[in-house]
Amino acid sequence: MRIIHMGTPFFAVPALDALEAAGHEIIAVYTRAPKPAGRGKQLQMSPVHARADALGIPVFTPRSFRDPAAVAQFLEVAKDCDVAIVAAYGLILPRAVLDAPRLGCLNIHGSLLPRWRGAAPIQRAVLAGDAITGVTIMQMEEGLDTGPMLATVETPIDAKTSGDLFAELAQLGAELLIDVLANPRAAVPQPEDGVTLAPRIDKAEAHLDTSLPALQLERQVRGFNPAPGAWIDIAGERVKILAASVEPAPAAPGITVDDRLGLGTGDGVLRPTLVQRAGKPAMPVKALLNGWRVPAGSPLA
Question: In CATH, what number does 203-291 get?
Fold first, then answer.
């Protein structure tokens, strides 16, 4: 098939590689424009852009498809295109773009639709305590992840972080996509019940509120790993909690319960296992406490 790939983060790279390995002709890649990054604020290409360059595929980086010139350019590129594959692209596609390829646009979505429609389905599934998640290949339409489904694949969440699931679902989605392209099937409308929305993550959500149960805070720790990183103020210093366990022990919320950095919560103790102080590398709690004494009763905020 002659294919346009549209994606931006690492989540979209395995699909690009799988299409190339399967022998499809990738006529163009669309991705977000390079952005300033790092201390020097130099322009940095997206992971998909860098991979497409390495594969020698033409890359287009329109700022928005509200610009008629960007739409006209896409229509010219897509005039001999069979299908466009969209994975975490980051731009809204108008009807003219969705209809341009012969078979339209297929989306690799990181949830079991209709649960978690929106920008942050993987993180929202972890935060909600879902037992399973997965990938859906769907035919795109103008609604927010409302299109009919072609295929799904499930995986248990267990104790995985959002980062773990991003990597796993990216690979599962790439494999499922290749199967869908090789074995066409009828699209099935999404169920009308069970719809939930997955709005973009706000950095303010990553602040741990110790009035909540430890189980909920542990889900936040996994859900916000690797970004933006769950955090709490311990004895006047902001500390990121990158991994933690839960102890079903009585505890007063808002203070450390012992000198091993047990955090008192509304129900149980949150026991950090991997942490990061401001300006420092991530480290196990034992290493942290070798150089920083946090006695029982230290305030949390």
Answer: 3.10.25.10
Going from N- to C-terminal start, the domains of the chain cover 2-198, 203-291
In this prediction, residue 195 has a pLDDT band, given cuts at 50, 70 and 90, of very high
CATH code: domain 2-198 is 3.40.50.170
Tell me the average pLDDT across 283-287: 95
Distances (CA, A) of 280 to 39, 265, 277: 16, 26, 5
The predicted model gives 212-227 an average pLDDT of 98
Q: How far apart are CA 292 and CA 300, in angstroms?
A: 16
Q: How many CA atoms lie within 13 A of 131 on its CB side?
A: 0
> H/E/C letters for each residue in 35-63?
EEECCCCEEECCHHHHHHHHHCCCEECCC
**Residue/partner pairs of 248-256 with CB below 8 Å, 24 or more apart:** 253/210, 253/211, 253/300, 254/210, 254/211, 254/299, 254/300, 254/301, 255/296, 255/297, 255/298, 255/299, 255/300, 256/294, 256/295, 256/296, 256/297, 256/298, 256/300
DSSP of 11-25, one letter per residue? GGHHHHHHHHHTT-E
pTM: 0.95
Identify whether 226 is preceded by a cis peptide bond (ω within 30 of 0): yes
How far is it, in rounded angstroms, from Cα 284 to Cα 273?
Answer: 6
Listed in order, strand segments (DSSP E) in the chain are 2-7, 25-30, 35-37, 42-44, 59-60, 83-87, 105-109, 117-118, 132-139, 149-156, 197-198, 230-234, 237-247, 263-264, 269-277, 283-284
Backbone phi and psi for residue 207, each to the nearest 5 degrees, phi listed first: -75, 120
Burial of 140 (0-12, 13-18, 19+ CB in 10 A): buried
